[in-house]
Design brief:
This protein has strands spanning 5-15, 18-33, 36-42, 53-59, 62-68, 73-78, 82-89, 92-105, 111-122, 125-138. Strands 6-5-4-3-2-1-10-9-8-7 form a ten-stranded antiparallel β-sheet, with no helix packed on it. It starts with a strand and ends with a strand. It has 139 residues and is mostly beta strands. It has one domain (5-138): Lipocalin, CATH 2.40.128.20.
Length: 139
């Protein structure tokens, strides 16, 4: 896999009414396998997960965000469906409910855009509302 794509990521997290946005531009790999698209890139200190690799898999009715390395996680996002996941952070591991709100993608073999909206919940309590926008372009 070659890092021959420019990946622009805009992530917004709303917690208790406070909004935080991360704007990251990096290079990574992008490819299609069967009916799914894959976007893989190395995390940076800006995201708090330096030394980890993230792969976003997008298909017709869902997406997953899998982080490999020191802090592992796999978020399964499907609109209108709640999925459980383990989520490692620098503060420890959590089991979270992932509620898919919206999944929108116009990906083709040449790149495109993905928009994901989901909530993270634990013990029935809302932790955060999340929006992730990715723009993928061939270098």
């Amino acid at each position: 896999m070659q890092d021959n794509y420019l990946i622009q990521i805009l992530g917004t997290v709303v917690t208790d009414g406070d909004s935080e946005t991360i704007d990251l531009t990096t290079t990574g790999a992008f490819y299609k396998k069967e009916d799914k698209y894959y976007v893989c890139y190395d995390e940076s200190a800006a995201t708090g997960f330096d030394g980890s690799k993230t792969c976003v898999k997008v298909w017709d009715k869902g997406a997953s965000i899998t982080r490999f390395g020191r802090y592992k996680s796999c978020l399964m996002i499907e609109k209108g469906i709640t999925n459980l996941c383990n989520y490692d952070t620098p503060a420890g591991s959590l089991v979270l409910d992932i509620n898919g709100v919206e999944i929108d993608s116009n990906l083709t073999e040449k790149g495109g855009e993905v928009n994901l909206e989901y909530t993270l919940n634990s013990g029935g309590l809302l932790i955060s509302e999340n929006k992730l926008k990715m723009n993928i372009k061939e270098l």
